[in-house]
Every structure is written in C-alpha cells, then in structure tokens.
C-alpha cells in the first residue's frame, strides 16, 4: 500500500515538474521523513521499512545523511559524588558536550553486583576496599550515547589519581584523593558493553533522537 502510494506520488511529480520531478519529491520526502521519525516511535511504525518502500517505489533509493556512529558508555557517580551533590554538575558536563543520556538510575549496589563490576581487580590488596566503598551508599548509574563517548568520557573524567588530573576534568576540579575520585567511566567499548549489560536491563535504555542532534552532528 505504501509502495503503491509512493509510486503514484512519483509519477505525479514527474508529470508536474518534468525530469526534475523525482528530485523534488525526494527532497520533500527527506524533510517529511526526518520530521516524522522525530515525532513517531520507531517501534510502532517501522521507520526502516518505510524508507525502503519509498526508495524502491521511486525506482532507486532515497539518500539521507548518514547518522554518526552512536557509541555508548557506562558512567557512574560514586557514593562520594552523590553525597557531595555533584550529580547535576557531572550530568551537565556530558550534556553540554553534546552527549545523550539514554539510561539513569539511583541505587545502593549489593555486594554481588560490586564483586562482578570490579571482578578484574579480584585478588588485589585494594579489592575489598573497592567493594566496601561502592556498596556504602547510593550511586547514580548512567548510560551516555554519542560519537566516541567512551574515549571522550574518560578524558572528561580525568586520571584515576585526581592530583594527576588536569584542571577542567571532573576529577581535576572536584577531587583530591584517589580513593574518593567521584566517578567511574568505562575504559573501552568492550568494557562499556559489559558494564551496561550488568547494570541495566534492555528495557531501561531509551532510543530517541533529540531535537538538538542536527546542531551537534553534521
């Protein structure tokens, strides 16, 4: 049905505008599709299917600007960051950089969760202190999305030792002690995927297109 409607529209455009008719229609389709996908849930409409149908009906493809690769990172404000009221400042920095918050929760991690999260450090002398600290109070677990968010997020956070962190980083501005360094950030794409799966269920993460996207990415 959609394909037939698109074919009919294409034929009408060609009759009305001559050889440029299809180009006129494609341009209008791009604008309409962009507006529609921003306001209509993808799960209810099948945006990809609509795009394919439009392209096939017009005897070719409708070319849209490629979306930037959307990487995700796990960022956690530790108990000291929550107690010191720094959650808003940390969120603000990621938002102002242009990253998108797709998941957030406040919780007191259990010992089992902490053991798995810090599993790579198990057996090291400082491991028990890590677990005790992260389970000592509420944390704010977040998932941020955007271009190279893992690498850039780590740069925004700063070095593990706050005293070695440059001014302007989160740790460089807000922390002085390595055992109270405010925030955790995934150190690789693989770690991010593992940590996100550990802390969040799929249904707790949201996929949407903010209206500011076109002002962040070209």
Key attributes of the depicted protein:
218 residues; alpha+beta; Alpha-Beta Plaits; 2 domains; four-stranded antiparallel beta sheet; 12 helices; 50% helix; transmembrane; transmembrane helix; membrane; NDK-like_dom_sf; EC 2.7.4.6
Indicate the structural class. alpha+beta
What is the mean pLDDT? Answer: 80
- The radius of gyration over CA amounts to 23 Å
CATH architecture of the largest domain: 2-Layer Sandwich
- CATH topology group of the largest domain: Alpha-Beta Plaits
Number of domains: 2
Distance between the termini: 34 Å
What is the top-level CATH class of the largest domain? Alpha Beta
Low-confidence stretches: 1-7, 19-67
CATH superfamily of the largest domain, by name, is Nucleoside diphosphate kinase-like domain
Portion in strands: 5-15%
Q: Percent range for helical residues?
A: 40-55%
Pfam families: NDK (PF00334)
EC number: 2.7.4.6
Catalytic activity: a 2'-deoxyribonucleoside 5'-diphosphate + ATP = a 2'-deoxyribonucleoside 5'-triphosphate + ADP; a ribonucleoside 5'-diphosphate + ATP = a ribonucleoside 5'-triphosphate + ADP
Enzyme class: transferase
Structural features, described:
Helix content is 50%, strand content 12%. The chain is built from twelve helices and four strands. It has helices spanning 2-17, 21-39, 42-45, 47-57, 79-83, 87-97, 111-117, 127-134, 149-157, 170-174, 189-199, 213-216; strands at residues 71-77, 100-107, 139-146, 183-185. Helix 1 (2-17) crosses helix 2 (21-39) and helix 1 (2-17) packs across helix 4 (47-57). The longest helix has 19 residues, at 21-39. The protein is globular, with a radius of gyration of 23 Å. The model is unreliable at 1-7 and 19-67 (pLDDT under 50). One of its GO terms (molecular function) is ATP binding. It is an enzyme of class 2 (transferase). The active site is at 184 (pros-phosphohistidine intermediate). Its EC number is 2.7.4.6.
């Amino acid at each position: 049905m959609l394909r037939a409607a698109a074919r009919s529209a294409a034929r009408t455009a060609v009759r009305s505008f001559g050889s440029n008719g299809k180009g006129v229609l494609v341009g209008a389709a791009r604008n309409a599709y962009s507006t529609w996908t921003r306001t209509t849930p993808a799960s209810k409409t099948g945006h990809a299917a609509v795009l394919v149908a439009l392209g096939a009906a017009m005897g070719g493809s409708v070319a849209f600007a490629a979306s930037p690769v959307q990487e995700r990172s796990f960022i956690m404000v530790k108990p000291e960051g929550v107690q010191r009221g720094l959650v808003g400042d940390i969120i603000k920095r990621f938002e102002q950089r242009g990253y998108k918050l797709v998941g957030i929760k406040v919780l007191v991690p259990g010992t089992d969760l902490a053991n798995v999260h810090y599993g790579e450090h198990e057996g090291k002398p400082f491991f028990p202190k890590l677990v005790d600290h992260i389970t000592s109070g509420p944390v704010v677990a977040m998932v941020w999305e955007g271009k190279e968010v893992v690498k850039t997020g780590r740069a925004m956070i700063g070095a593990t030792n706050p005293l070695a962190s440059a001014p302007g980083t989160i740790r460089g501005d807000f922390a002085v002690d390595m055992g109270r360094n405010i925030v955790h950030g995934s150190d690789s794409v693989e770690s991010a995927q593992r940590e996100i799966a550990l802390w969040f269920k799929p249904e707790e993460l949201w996929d949407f297109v903010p209206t500011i996207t076109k002002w962040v990415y070209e």
